[in-house]
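Working notes for the structural subgroup meeting. M.R. asked for a predicted model of this chain before we commit to crystallization trials. I am recording the input and output together here so anyone reviewing the notebook later can reproduce the run.

Input as submitted:
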Amino acid sequence: MSVKVGIPVSSVALAAVNWAQHEAKRLVRFKEIGKGADRDNITTGELSRPVTDRSYWEGRYVLCELTLAQEGGESLTFADAVAAVSRQKRIVSTALTGRDGTVKEYINAEDWQINIVLGIQSEANGEIADEWPGDELRRLRKLLDAKETLNVYSEFLDVFNIGRIVIKSYSATQMTEANYQAVEISAESDEEYEIFSKEYEQPKKEGEQ
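Returned structure, recorded in token form:
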């Protein structure tokens, strides 16, 4: 007599998704816990930024670097960063009697809504380390807590002409990887504008008519 144990389809699907996520993470992580940082000839010169031979990355998936900077202040560059953008158009729709549909009047485009996920890797003496990235996270928090507009640059955001952002919120969930921490950022574009008015009249000097 043979007994067959059925595995729920949902469990199989969940396992497949988890394995896919695990493999995807391996594409963008720069080391595995318990191995030396020199296993792939990796060193770091900036926060979470690997420096390797170009041949190492040939045929591999890589991400656009992303830099956050204060005006004349601290600047941080992240190699492990994923950004998503969205934008709505402000349109006034007016219904007309006896006519189906509406007449649309385009007003303008709203600010870009931006979501960024940063991966922070721990480093010590310029090399990736098996330590939780507490110091790196503190530096990022200090930058995100600044009450000012931040300059931002990545090839991806440059496509949408996004160069300045205001941080609306950020969050972090403690991760099981000992030397890696992800931080999610919600931001809004904040481009500079010059507004001119023809209605403004210079105050007259004393004695002028």
